[in-house]
Amino acid sequence: MLSVHWVNKSSKLLFAICMMCVFSSTSQAHFLWVVDANQSADGKVHVYFSEEAAPDNPALLEKILGTKLWEANLHDDVVKVSPLKFEKGANSLEATFSPKSTNAGVFLDYGVMSKGGAEPYLLRYCGRSQTIANRKGGKVIGDAAVLPLEVVAERSGDDFLLRTFWQGQPAEGIEVTVDGGDLSASKEGVSNAQGELALGTLANGLYSIRVKKVLEEPGKLGDKEYKSIRIYSTTSLLIKPPAEVTQPAVSKALPELPRGITSFGGAVVGDVVYVYGGHAGGAHHYAKEDQSRELLALNVKQPSEWKVVGEGPERTGLAMVAVGNDLYRMGGFIADNGKEEKEVLKSTSDFARWDAASKQWIELPALPEPRSSLDAAVIGKTIYVVGGWNLNGGGKEAQWHETAWKCDVSANPPVWQPIANPPFRRRALSLAEHQGKLYVIGGMKNQGGPTTEVAIYDPATNSWSSGPALPGEGMEGFGNSAFAINQNLFVSVMSGKVYKLSADGSQWDLVHQLEKPRFFHRMLPISQHQLVFVGGASMESGKARTTEVFEVK
């Protein structure tokens, strides 16, 4: 248990009197606060000079115009801060977030102070914003240049815990004060040897947290010398109610796949789930005999078993979609080698429609480039393909695609047409239509490894923009699967977590946990309130034959 002493506001009188001795009348009990665009009512970043994270005397803003304001995306694997320009508003310094940013921060060397005969000291302010909803929080910015003293909150069961850091390391003996929210009195305490301080339960709301550290380090700011540095760091903490996590609803009637497969195509027509192709061999090595050429079908209304309803060429890393009652498959690669031979992997430009009457694939105009490790989605009668690469023997010889295409299959003949080039080169991603736009989620970048980044394509303007990154590390976005049902966009990631895009499109909320985590699988809709998870693999248990169903409530 952490030993914490809380001080009532009435006990702060002596502290306030002492503060009057060292602060000028204009800066008494004022600190630098930043409220980010996800916390403010108007969607802007606001910097306040106040006792709490709220507006105060506007005249004091003149004293903080030298503030360095920054922004960061806390979902990045390595968090990097970027400068953010601001303007002086009526009650705050105001700024607008870049599309990917999730948090904001401030830094200001306020000046050299010397009051009441005390030795001169440098007064330094810094701080950040933090929001906790579904995730437990606790991720640090970790940039000592702009945030040398940092305090972050973390959800611990029904309670909250504060962690204090100095130069990126847990800091003992840091004075902490918490105000705001539904608190009738300030909470004060000192961090323990692990840099921790228990807060107990906190209601939803915006809290103002500040910490203090004194450095006995002399120096000079401009032409003024000082003997020590007093650092006040703040965190504007918004606690939001977590979205309700729907309990698993796994069907006990859906049968297993005949064998485990990864990197296959999947689509639904009516009550029938179809999967085609894929890789059934061991990880990290491909051979022709381990590639599937089967088209499997399962009627979810009469789910006796998966049935082979057709065949075609061996393909792995392909995409398959349904347009009306028709299936279309695109791309994929063939392993032109045996199990004991060196890999010779070649991407294809396949484009074909399944003819259920003749049980044959009807060849259509080929993709403009050979492409595998791609994904596809449908808007109306138009198929879009994004991502992937062109394998011409192996991964080292691969060409990462910079293009994306669309094809109206109602045209006669259908023709592939370019869309605006994506601002990325990725493969092993997912592509899903949501509210008339296309969401490109995660994948592997041509440089930098796996990513949780999200890009959005708007067909109306033929333009790209950034969306909210997935929670977690980069591998969460690798080999993910996404689909939208009933005006909600869902994504299934490697850890088995299923996220839903929030109504305002600003974040991903956790809604489900699979019994069998998987990636390189397919998540497909079998009704307006059910998603089925087929195939894939996990690093712990290998390929998955089980088929899970999630009941969306």
From TrEMBL:
Residues 1-29 form the signal peptide. This is N-acetylneuraminate epimerase. Pfam families: Kelch_1. It comes from the Bacteria. Keywords: Signal. The keyword Glycosyltransferase does not apply.
